[in-house]
Amino acid sequence: MDDTSYCAQLREAVRVEDWDTVEALEARHLTRIEMTEGAAWHRALSQAPDDWLRERPVLAFVSTMSLASGGGFNVPDPEPFERLIGWVEAQQNPPVRARLFAEVGLLQYQKMIGNYGEMSATIDRMEVLLDETTDYRSLGDLTPVLFLPMAIGALILGDAARARGFLGEARRRGAKAGPHPILPHVQNYLALVYALEGDFGAAREYAADWVGRVEAPVGSLPAVYQGDAVMIAALLAMGDLDRARTDAAIASIPSTVEGDDLWWVAAHVRARRALLWGDRIVAARSLERLLAENAALAGAGTLVHTLLATDLSDLYQYAGDLFAASRSLENVHNLDPSSSTSRARLALLHGDIHAVREQLPVESGPRGYQSTAPAEWLALRARAERLDGDDARANDLAVTAARSALVHGSRMAVIEADPKSGDMMLDAWGSPAIDAAQCMILQQPAILTAREEEVLGLLHETGSAQQIATALFLSVSTVKTHLRAVYRKLGVRSREEALVKAAGVANPAR
Predict the structure, then answer these.
(1) CA–CA dist 212, 204 (Å, integer)
(2) Are the CB atoms for 329 and 314 separated by under 8 Å?
(3) pLDDT in tens, 172-183
(4) Which of 194, 201, 139, 136 is nearest to 167 (CA)?
């Protein structure tokens, strides 16, 4: 029997008020029906007798969960949820199904308010319940679906490996269910995890053919899942440095994503797009506001905070505001690939090549992520070595970066390279799909112009804006404008700080 037949059975059972059949269908085919017909359970159970539903707290909770499925942050109606929790706690040996529903409701609530410490414990309890239960029949077709909120929770907490593990288990158990309709969506979430880790090659292997197209009815679980999947299309397009595809994917991100568990991925996608082809200052300020508005949901130590704070720093780095870029990374302590790249680039812009070498080892990848150094690390190291005068080493690293980029399926590493290394990488790829002119816009973050260097040099010699103006035949107002630009680009606030950093300014554009 196909899934549409189960929906027809549910509608008929409701029509004749056969509530025992409704209960039996929920126990065996809950998610198949919900995946086929959005909010089906809410519509059906809203017609059930109040007394009958009150005696079945799991079903009452299912009704509200179904209604909230299209809203992401929407927490189920607290009354049925609290009643379910109270009922579970009152039982000497409550059914595993009821306990898992209670934990799912709790997990969603914790995600909504940013209670990440408790969320980790909830995920642990769910994992134990699913590992230890032998009553698979009572779980019906629910089991694979339960791993999705667990995986998203683990991802938010910054444990991508655990998220992949949960999704792998969802695939394994879903395949046993003959096959389960959740499987294509599980693969898409796997693709999303890999893309966020920088492994676009693996992401492409898992992404479904229809990724990037939202066709399911609004409010249904497939619509939620497909909405999240659109962001994979945007990330993969950026990995190819394809502006048109990126813009098309971003334009098709549904508004519901802004309010679901992965709102921060949508923000990340838009920030990276601005970094590549947009107004970085405008994007940085918009991202700052978003972080301030969602401070509780972007706590330090979470992937949400790490990713968005890194995006913010990158935007400011390429806009030339190194002080704001440094400030953005102050509470980022995770050593993930993107934040490590950002810190190393910032060090390079301050002329600290030794710090770049320390932060970006080329012999191995970041712990818990790739086993080899990411292409971005290699390209940035090539840039540092060339600045240090070691062209041979830089050339070797550029070749290795090009190979790594092909393995991991992303060509964004070229934006970290110096012009010569970038040309070598583009030649190695030999792909006409890459617009070299667009790539080059990122190769040189805003560093000191020739005039700004003159002003900085005279600042050391004279210290007076009037004297600098006289020496350069400029107005005092123009000199002060140049000095403000120098301070901003060096990430300092005073003449003394500017002079300390002056010796470390790297200007590969000259």
Answers:
(1) 12
(2) no
(3) 988 886 778 888
(4) 194
DSSP string over 99-116 = HHHHHHHHHHHHHHHT-H
**Phi and psi angles of residue 491, each rounded to the nearest 5 degrees, phi first:** 70, 35
Task: For residue 459, give the DSSP letter.
Answer: H
Is residue 60 within 8 Å of residue 53, measured between CB atoms?
yes
3-state secondary structure of 504: coil
Q: Are 188 and 222 in contact (CB under 8 A)?
A: no
Residue 29: exposure state from Cβ atoms within 10 A (0-12, 13-18, ≥19): buried
Q: What is the CA 265 to chain-centroid distance, rounded? A: 4
Query: Residues 400-415, buried b or exposed e (16+ Cβ, 10 A)?
Result: bbbebbbebbbbbbbb
471 CA to centre of own chain: 51
Over residues 447-465, the mean pLDDT reads 80
pTM for the complete prediction? 0.83
The widest CA-to-CA distance across the chain, in whole angstroms, is 94
Q: Could you give the CA distance from residue 368 to residue 160 in angstroms, rounded to a whole number?
A: 8
Contacts of 84 (CB under 8 A, 6+ apart): 57, 58, 60, 61, 98, 101, 102, 105
182-197 pLDDT, tens digit each? 888 999 999 999 999 9
Q: How far, in Å, CA of 222 to CA of 69, rounded?
A: 10
Tracing tokens 């997990």 back to the chain, one arrives at 107
Of 223, 228, 300, 213, which is closest to residue 258 (Cα–Cα)? 228
Q: What is the DSSP string of 276-320?
A: HHS-HHHHHHHHHHHHHHTGGGS-TTSHHHHHHHHHHHHHHHHHT
